[in-house]
Q: What sequence folds into this?
DNA sequence: AACTCCAATTGATCCGATGAATATGGTACG
DNA sequence: CGTACCATATTCATCGGATCAATTGGAGTT
């Protein structure tokens, strides 16, 4: 095994063993490099790999720190995977999201506080107001859509589940979905589905919430795979 | 934004744009560094980050290549996330796995070829033979368990779904589950659940397969969260 | 006590050199 | 002509040091 891979594993293990704890500051580069018996540039490459995994974080002039290591943080590299597979695998990612989001929405039905139900209602109102305009601001709709879904899933009681869903459709995918909705009717249908989910949550009805959430994502899936209007059909 | 982050994004974008395709060889380090206007060591740190994401791969003496970029490859960094959260978040990961594996098993009921059903049966026979010994080889059981589950989920018809499940319970988690089964009765129960899933698949009964798969993972969840026999209860 | 400013600390970036692994092309042999 | 072997060039791996830039913390001032 290479020196760098070795250093990466050593640092990882030190974290797993609790020698370095979340939020803790690591020794200075020179010191840590000597401790591991490697050159400073080599250590930097190892550190850089761990930064990419969101395990470490550096602040120039200050030091290198272990991140919070929260699932949400560590799993957010997944959105890049979703983005890079825009061409072929979008449907597969959405399928996973459908399975998880249906379940998370059902779980949230029993847990979401009344306050946040009010917020959801306001998000819906805002989105519907936006969609009624002659010039639809798709960027704003994407943001509202993201807020709506993540507010719900954040109350499913499982941080890992919420994080996976969040990253399952990356920002690029989500933006593309809404951008593809040139048909005003599709926008209306999507908003109606959102409201159906909202009503099920209001009624604290987990089963209805699950079904409406699944239906909603399924509608998105079909609008993407059904109508090949995205210019990617040329590749196998 | 830092020079390195810039380089990482540039290379990513070149891949997304198709300038660098899967399997393709990148320019030599010195050349690419000059092209991006950065020093070679800086480029190496960027490349190292992309290697950690499984986007690039280097072969000393040969060159740097773009990987296949398959979802299975890109998502396999997730298992590290699962491993690092052994202490607190195991239950949450298993919950996600339960949701996904139930669905994947149901999907596989209609798709798994007869040949692989035969293989599944053999895996079960082997595991049961192993469990009947006086000295149980837990390592071997873990391997068979992994083969059993991944053979099923690989036939769910969705590579992303299969990859996420595969990584949802990392090797460390899985090993720990089996190691925790000091009670021979628990081993027998687990094997019985495996066989129930197998029978449902044989009958091509998606609903039964889904329920038995969910039941199986749930049993594992409860054996972990119910009996705090893993020495991690000292941390909050 | 609060503020300003400077110096030490620390990561960011660059550079050049050497080592190690691989591929390639040529050469000798069958 | 084809194959096996070998020398060499190519390329990544690792190293050590130099300089730049950002942050911090304390000295000095008000």
A:
């Amino acid at each position: 095994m290479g020196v760098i891979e070795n250093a990466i594993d050593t640092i990882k293990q030190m974290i797993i063993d609790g020698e370095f704890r979340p939020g803790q500051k690591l020794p200075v580069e020179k010191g840590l490099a000597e401790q591991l018996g490697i050159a400073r540039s080599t250590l930097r490459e190892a550190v850089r790999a761990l930064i990419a995994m969101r395990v470490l974080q550096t602040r120039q002039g200050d030091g290198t720190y272990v991140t919070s290591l929260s699932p949400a943080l560590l799993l957010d590299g997944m959105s890049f995977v979703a983005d890079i597979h825009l061409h072929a695998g979008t449907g597969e990612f959405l399928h996973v999201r459908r399975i998880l989001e249906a379940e998370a929405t059902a779980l949230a039905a029993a847990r979401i506080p009344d306050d946040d139900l009010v917020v959801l209602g306001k998000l819906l109102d805002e989105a519907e107001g936006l969609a009624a305009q002659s010039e639809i601001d798709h960027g704003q709709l994407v943001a509202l859509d993201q807020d709506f879904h993540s507010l719900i899933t954040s109350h499913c009681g499982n941080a890992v589940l919420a994080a996976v869903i969040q990253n399952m459709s990356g920002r690029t995918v989500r933006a593309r979905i809404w951008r593809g909705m040139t048909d005003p009717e599709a926008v209306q249908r999507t908003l109606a589905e959102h409201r159906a989910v909202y009503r099920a949550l209001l009624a604290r009805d987990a089963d209805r919430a699950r079904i409406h959430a699944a239906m909603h994502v399924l509608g998105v899936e079909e609008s993407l795979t059904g109508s090949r209007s995205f210019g990617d059909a040329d590749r196998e």
Summary: The CA atoms of residues 142 and 175 of chain A lie 6 Å apart. The radius of gyration of chain A is 22 Å. The longest strand of chain A covers residues 56-59. Chain A touches chain B through 41 residues (CB under 8 Å).
